Backbone:
């Protein structure tokens, strides 16, 4: 869990994280000139990727109180370097007097974390201006596949989906948000994620279009996968 007081905090944190990431290259046993050249050409197409999870969850709603607030400290430790998880409008060490409506909502590692409606709205508006996503007013999760950006003020988003957590919960798509995020973290830490990114880069991004939605569907009960796969479905949508 990382400070996400505003959109710029997310951009800065994600772009900074790229500096410490290795490029996931391809290596062949043979070192003959032809093979070496082929390996260089393949590796030149492979980029650095990170999976970014962004929660839009208002702590004043019963859903957030029951499903998310109590798990923020756990998710902070569990996500490690596998995935960047941000909870918009939340943070510690706030700029003095910037958000007069801030209130303490939880604690992580003994440090008070606050929430501000003003900061939350700022983040919503920034993402609405940057993507095709429009906030539903309910508790939502944005999952982004992001590459290194040449623009320090923006995210280089390959693909993105939005999951309406409240509607998915009603559909019994998961037992808890905590369990859903646990599955996402486990996937992000696996070799499957690296292999899919590598193959997508080599093929010119062909796989990127449905990459994130397919991941999410694979984590859900089979009875819901066909329903959620429909392009117009309200619970999981590409943006």
Residues:
């Amino acid at each position: 869990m990382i400070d996400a007081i505003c959109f710029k905090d997310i951009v800065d944190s994600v772009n900074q994280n790229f500096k410490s990431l290795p490029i996931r290259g391809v290596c062949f046993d043979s070192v003959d000139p032809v093979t070496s050249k082929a390996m260089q050409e393949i590796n030149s197409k492979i980029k650095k990727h990170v999976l970014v999870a962004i929660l839009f969850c208002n702590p004043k709603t019963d859903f957030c109180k029951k499903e998310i607030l109590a798990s923020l400290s756990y998710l902070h430790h569990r996500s490690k370097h596998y995935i960047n998880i941000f909870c918009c409008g939340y943070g510690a060490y706030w700029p003095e007097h910037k958000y007069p409506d801030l209130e303490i909502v939880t604690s992580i590692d003994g440090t008070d974390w606050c929430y501000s409606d003003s900061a939350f709205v700022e983040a919503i508006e920034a993402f609405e201006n940057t993507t095709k996503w429009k906030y539903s007013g309910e508790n939502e999760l944005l999952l982004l596949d992001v590459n290194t950006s040449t623009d320090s003020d923006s995210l280089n988003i390959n693909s993105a989906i939005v999951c309406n957590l409240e509607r998915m919960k009603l559909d019994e798509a998961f037992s808890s948000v905590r369990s859903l995020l646990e599955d996402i973290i486990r996937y992000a830490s696996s070799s499957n994620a690296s292999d899919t990114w590598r193959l997508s880069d080599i093929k010119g991004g062909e796989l990127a279009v449905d990459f994130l939605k397919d991941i999410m569907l694979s984590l859900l009960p089979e009875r819901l996968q066909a329903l959620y796969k429909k392009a117009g479905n309200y619970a999981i949508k590409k943006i």
Notes: Residues 7-238 form one domain.
